[in-house]
Design brief:
The protein is of the alpha+beta class. The chain folds into 2 domains: 242 residues, BirA Bifunctional Protein, domain 2 (2-Layer Sandwich), CATH 3.30.930.10; 96 residues, Rossmann fold. Helices cover 38% and strands 22% of the residues. The protein contains 15 helices and 16 strands. The strands form 3 sheets. Strands 1-5-6-11-10-9-7-8 form an 8-stranded mixed sheet. A 5-stranded mixed sheet has the order 13-12-14-15-16, with helices on both faces. A 3-stranded antiparallel sheet has the order 2-4-3. A hairpin with a 5-residue loop joins strand 15 and strand 16. The two termini are 43 Å apart. The model has no long low-confidence stretch (mean pLDDT 90). It binds one RNA strand through helix 3, strand 6, strand 10, strand 11 and helix 11.
Length: 422
RNA sequence: GUGGGCGUAGCUCAGCUGGUAGAGCACCCGGUUGUGGUCCGGGAUGUCGCGGGUUCGAGCCCCGUCGCUCACCCCA
């Protein structure tokens, strides 16, 4: 029980049966993105540290205290990626992906790293699925990105979640609001730490969970009320498009995102069954990011969805996660000669596309059948000397217990027919 | 970085005011010379997180330490 090595603190790990859910979730989230023409991009897990300090923003907690940063052997400062968008933008700029048809539509998945104190749904290594659509600023594209996330959650069977959206407007709107908000906050009685947080980004105070802060912020000026005409129209168009495709949302003018690059439409999916870390995904538009990183001045929009939290959410909703393993046939062989022959048979069936498992070694038949049951296989066969000489086997339906006689040579055919029936 | 809770079998946990370590599940074998799920019988499994202290005696009390966990800040 006291194993010599333990996984590093706060990492999420997946092993059977739960790992089946992990693969399934990633696959399911990917399909709506594929349906909308997004293409995969595979990127490094570590990047030049400056990519994040400049892209994500020095004032964010992510950059100022949560990055895994180290020096490589060449004396370069390297950081394990804490989020996905900055790396995607770097690759787009570096490889000139934005020189052709726009928008560039990409999706990615993989591990991300933040050196935080772990808690329920928060890990130091966690997994995200994300998409980015770069180079076009169209409210329909905003709605498309949000709808892709929404469809992913729905396909997984999730229901207890809410989509919060707001608009941070354009630079002009934000500047006006910031002035008003800062002068409002100056008049508040705040502790030193909170005040310094507000100095970095005054919007952060909207997101403070402490009730005394919330009540003080109750009458704070909302960015929503400072949107200029263009920003307002844009937000109306996004909402209209979402409604048109049946994506329900709640406008939440107090919503704040943790990364500094967001502008315009921002959104967050919140699940009700998760405890303190309830965000299962979020994203938004980023107007200045690409230029900040040395590329063209193109706008983009994207999201990141937390695979770990989605799996937790599915578990709290009682969505069955362990039944995602699928096996057509379990083969039990009795005796030396039968084991040799059945090994060949099993391989043939696998090559024909069936999912086939088998028993190994000499096992008691009862135990082997139990293993067949545990495997979740839909059918099982037993092969011994009798079957080899007669060429006929009993194909057993594990759910009903019924058996039918089939010839060894006709097994694949029969299996294929039975599969089609179910 | 700050605060709470918890470390006993593979898993979930019980263990009285200190007196020789338990249950359920899972696993293996058998009841049924070759057909799983239910039932019955049998079997294997523990540095009681680690180190020290108190005591005739510590899983239990005290100190330290490590780990896990939940929450705050923040976020997927």
């Amino acid at each position: 029980m006291s194993s010599q090595f333990q996984a590093p603190k706060g990492v999420s790990e997946y092993f059977p049966p739960r790992s089946n859910a992990f693969e399934y979730v990633v696959r399911t989230l990917t399909s709506p993105a594929l349906a909308a023409g997004y293409e995969p991009i595979e990127l490094p897990i570590f990047e030049d540290t400056e990519l994040f300090t400049r892209g994500v923003g020095e004032s964010t907690d992510v950059v100022s205290k949560e990055m895994y940063t180290f020096e490589d052997r060449g004396g370069r400062s390297i950081t394990l990626r804490p989020e996905g968008t900055a790396g995607v933008m770097r690759a787009v700029i570096e490889h000139n992906l934005d020189r052709g048809q726009l928008p560039v539509k990409l999706f990615y998945k993989g591990p991300f790293f933040r050196a935080e104190r772990p808690q329920a749904g928060r890990y130091r290594q966690f997994y995200q699925f994300g998409i980015e659509a770069i180079g076009v600023n169209d409210p329909q594209l905003d709605a498309e990105v949000i709808a892709i996330a929404y469809q992913g959650y729905k396909r997984l069977g999730l229901t207890n979640f809410t989509l919060h959206i707001t608009s941070l407007g354009d630079a002009e709107s934000r500047a006006k609001h910031r002035t008003a908000l800062v002068s409002f906050i100056e008049k508040l009685d705040l502790d030193e730490e909170t005040r310094s947080r507000a100095a970095k980004n005054p919007l952060r105070l909207f997101d403070d969970k402490r009730s005394e802060i919330q009540s003080k912020m109750h009458s704070a000026p909302l960015l929503m009320d400072f949107l200029n005409e263009a920003s307002k129209e844009n937000f109306v168009a996004v909402k209209k498009a979402l409604t048109a495709v049946g994506v329900p949302f709640e406008v939440n003018p107090r919503m704040v995102r943790g990364l500094d690059y967001y502008t315009g439409t921002t959104f967050e999916f919140v699940h009700s069954g998760l405890g303190a870390q309830s965000g299962i995904g979020g994203g938004g538009r980023y107007d200045g990011l690409m230029a900040t990183l040395g590329g063209q001045n193109l706008s983009g929009i994207g999201f990141g969805l937390g695979i770990d939290r989605i799996i937790l959410a599915m578990e709290t909703e009682g969505i069955s996660l362990t039944s995602m393993k699928y096996t057509d046939l379990y083969v039990v062989a009795l005796g030396e000669r039968a084991r040799e022959e059945s090994f060949v048979l099993v391989n043939q069936l696998r090559n024909q596309g069936f999912v086939v498992e088998q028993s190994y070694g000499e096992r008691a038949l009862k135990g082997a059948m139990k293993a067949a049951d545990k495997s979740g296989a839909r059918f099982a066969i037993v092969i011994g000397d009798a079957e080899l000489s007669s060429g006929s086997i009993e194909l057993k339906n594990m759910a009903t217990g019924e058996t039918v006689s089939v010839t060894l040579s006709g097994l694949a055919q029969t299996l294929a027919e039975k599969s089609r029936l179910l």
